[in-house]
Structures are given as structure tokens and as C-alpha cells.
UniProtKB/TrEMBL annotation:
Gene that this polypeptide is encoded by: ca7
Signal peptide stretch: none
Enzyme class, UniProt record, top EC level: lyase
Organism classification: Eukaryota, Metazoa, Chordata, Craniata, Vertebrata
Keyword Zinc part of the UniProt annotation: yes
Protein name as it appears in the record: Carbonic anhydrase
Domain Alpha-carbonic anhydrase: 1-252
InterPro entries the UniProt entry points to: CA_dom (IPR001148), CA_dom_sf (IPR036398), Carbonic_anhydrase_a-class (IPR023561), Carbonic_anhydrase_a-class_CS (IPR018338)
GO terms (BP aspect): regulation of intracellular pH
Functional note: Reversible hydration of carbon dioxide.
Superkingdom of the source species: Eukaryota
Pfam families assigned to the protein according to its UniProt record, in alphabetical order: Carb_anhydrase
Keywords associated with the record: Lyase, Metal-binding, Zinc
EC number in record: 4.2.1.1
Length: 252
């Protein structure tokens, strides 16, 4: 028993008061006029590598200075881009972590940022209540996404858990939807150690990718090259967690 329902044994915070993901109910979100727009300064971002960590495929960035940050919206400081990764299902009707009025998307992209103004390292920030800011973007299936192939073409290089390869000059700005309207709430990492350290910013509009592109994520493996059992990487999403009285705010 290793899935999300067992995580509480080793990580009791799994039953905490600000766990993620959640089901977002748009008409119950409070429109907050004080919520400014979010600003993404990714123009000088520096991607380094792409890897399979046995849970997802992750693209890491150089976060030694403020070259790529997210700011504004619910954030009091600029937060530095550290990595992005995806969650997906085995078929198109589920795969996202957040749901909207009970509906899942086929996948969800998470851009993980940390508060380098208040904390010295990512690991330190990851345990602080305002340490991380994760931008969530839903992926819908339809036409090919014109830039996602840059990532899907690299997936064969990181098929096995523990594999890593160079991945330079990728700017995730090309993965944003047209509108930056968002919902925001206080939550957690959606994978162990499930720290309650994330200010979530979930964009309302999805981007569209094709079934073919999404299928390439499903050729990744949870297992390493040396393991004889080959387990396809799919359904790497945590289901929605109790809201426990939290308020979800909506940008205008
Ligand atoms: N789905 S999510 O909520 O966007 C999401 C994240 F935001 C993360 F930051 C991580 N994460 C986990 C670690 C290990 C660190 C090991 C040292 C202590 C902190 C965690 N590195 N990044 C993560 F795995 C994840 F799934
Ligand atoms: Zn994630």
C-alpha cells in the first residue's frame, strides 16, 4: 500500500488543515478586488536539465539569483522559479490534481517557485507557511500544442526513474494560456513530504495539448532501468483534499 491513501502513516500532515489539491467551486470563490494580476518575469530564465524522479518528469532551473520570478497577486515577495513538472492520468478524462466543480482535466502543470527574500534555501522555504508559490496550469486535450513537443521530444531520454539529461534554453512562458486569471488559496505540496508551505495560484484557463503529446508522458516509467518490473508512469495525481474552512479567492 503506497498510494495517497497510505501517505498519512509516514506523513501525518496528510490529514492537516491546509492540504492540496482541492476541488475549486468557482461561484463559491470570493472575487477579491485587492488581488492584483500576477506578473511572470521569465525572460532571463535558465533551464538546466530534465529528469525522471520516479514520481514525475521535472525540468529544473538555475535559481541562484532572481532571473526568473513570479510576483504580484497574493504574493508579498517575488518567488524564484525552481522547477516545473506535470501530473497526468492513464486516459484523458482524469489526470489533473485540482478539479473544477468536480471535473478533472487530462493533466496539470506545476511551476514551483520559492521565497528567496525570506529564506536562504529551497529546502528551508519548503517547510515555511509562505515559503513556496506554485502556479498550476490545466491541460485539456484537443489540437497539438505548438511548443510542448520540445518537452515530449526529450521524454525518451528520461524514460527510467533516476535518468537525467541536459535541457537548456527552455522558457516555460510558451506553456501559458492566454489569460492569467486565477484562483488562489493556501495549501501544501501534493506529494510527500506534503509540507503545508504552498501559496497556490491556479490559472482558470487551460492550455490545449493533443492526446498524442499526452501519450508520450505515459511512456515514462515509475521504475528504474535495473528493475525487472516495468511500471508505466501514469495516474501520478493526488485526489482533492478537504477544504477545512479555507477560502478560495478569485482574481477579477
Ligand atoms: N505537486 S507540487 O505540490 O507542485 C510539488 C512541489 F511544489 C514540490 F516542491 C515538490 N518537491 C518536493 C521536493 C523534495 C524536497 C526535499 C526537502 C524538503 C522539501 C521537499 N522538491 N520539490 C514536489 F515533489 C511536488 F510534487
Ligand atoms: Zn505537482
Amino acid at each position: 500500500l503506497t498510494g495517497p491513501s497510505a501517505w498519512h502513516n509516514k506523513y501525518p500532515v496528510a490529514h492537516g488543515s491546509r492540504q492540496s489539491p482541492i476541488d475549486i467551486v468557482p461561484h463559491q470563490a470570493s472575487r477579491d478586488p485587492n488581488l492584483s494580476q500576477i506578473v511572470l518575469n521569465y525572460d532571463r530564465c535558465t533551464s538546466i536539465n530534465i529528469s525522471n524522479n520516479g514520481h514525475s518528469v521535472v525540468v529544473e532551473f538555475d535559481d541562484t539569483d532572481d532571473r526568473s520570478v513570479i510576483q504580484g497577486g497574493p504574493l508579498d515577495n517575488p518567488y524564484r522559479l525552481k522547477q516545473f513538472h506535470f501530473h497526468w492520468g492513464e486516459k484523458g478524462c482524469e489526470g489533473s490534481e485540482h478539479t473544477v466543480s468536480g471535473n478533472s482535466y487530462a493533466s496539470e502543470l506545476h511551476l514551483v517557485h520559492w521565497n528567496a527574500v525570506k529564506y536562504k534555501t529551497f529546502d528551508e522555504a519548503a517547510t515555511a507557511p509562505d515559503g513556496l508559490a506554485v502556479l498550476g496550469i490545466f491541460l485539456d486535450t484537443g489540437d497539438d500544442h505548438r511548443w510542448l513537443h520540445t518537452i515530449t521530444d526529450a521524454l525518451y531520454m528520461v524514460k527510467f526513474k533516476g535518468s537525467i539529461t541536459d535541457f537548456k534554453d527552455f522558457n516555460p512562458k510558451c506553456l501559458l494560456p492566454s489569460s492569467l486569471h486565477y484562483w488562489t488559496y493556501l495549501g501544501s505540496l501534493t506529494t510527500p513530504p506534503l509540507h503545508e508551505s504552498v501559496i497556490w495560484i491556479v490559472l482558470k484557463d487551460p492550455i490545449t495539448v493533443s492526446e498524442k503529446q499526452l501519450g508520450k508522458f505515459r511512456m515514462l516509467l515509475f521504475t528504474g532501468e535495473e528493475e525487472d518490473q516495468r511500471l508505466r508512469m501514469e495516474n501520478n495525481f493526488r485526489p482533492p483534499q478537504p477544504l477545512k474552512g479555507r477560502k478560495v479567492r478569485s482574481s477579477n
